[in-house]
Amino acid sequence: MTVSRGRLLGWAAERCAAEGGGERAGRLRLDADRILAHVLGVGRSALYTESAAPVDDAPADEFRRLLARRLAGEPLPYVLGTEFFGPFELLVDPRVLIPRPETRLLVERALSLLPSPSGACVVDLGTGSGNIALCMAAAGCGVLATDVSAEALELAEENWRRVGLDGAITGLCGDLYGPLEACVQRGSCDAVLCNPPYVASGELAGLQPEVRFEPRLALDGGPDGLDLIRRLVAGAAEWLRAGGYLVLEIGAGQGEAVRCLVEAEAGLEFLGVEKDRAGIPRVVSAARR
Question: Which of 64, 89, 242, 251 is deepest in the core (most CB within 10 A)?
């Protein structure tokens, strides 16, 4: 038995309203539109311009199933299975952190520092979904991308294959700099990039409910959020060539602490902190002396 697009959206609006009024209900309603458009393979506007169009049982059931996941708090990108990062539509699931728009600032800063991205040797530590590695490879860099999670690396490699850039990226499973030993000389990399876990352990419980679906490994930065950042800064000079760059994403309120960490390393010169669109210091950069 078929049901119209309009009837499905009406049912969804009632379900969203039952989850709470105001802004949350409005956001869930928009998410319901995106889910139905995804299931039907149409643009969102077609849901309304063709509201009387019938929807067969199978897609209607799939829509109800996916909407139930979203109403239970699962992030929309996991429900849809994809998320955009710049021009790339990436596969995402609970194996990896969902790419955030602010990480584009890290990519932009790295590309602005490299004199010529074409042929540059770039390291992406903790690649996750592979979003940073993908953008750097698209700019012409040769990328070594590491992740301690074999499952995350498997998904990243699938994303690289989907856009045909897997030949420019070498995926390596292991912790931070460790996997580099087998394939690149120390002191030869043009840039080391990383969006590390930087949330303080005690702050995880206070994050938005949707975040509990994301891998803790990609979020938990230890007691003060700086555990991984300390290791990244301490190891960078060993792998960078003279004049090479370290570019890191950081959390709100960490700018001064990370500047001090960089300045304490004799082999690094602190270059500055870039703010995101919300005015939050977000990306730290340094150069190998």
Answer: 251
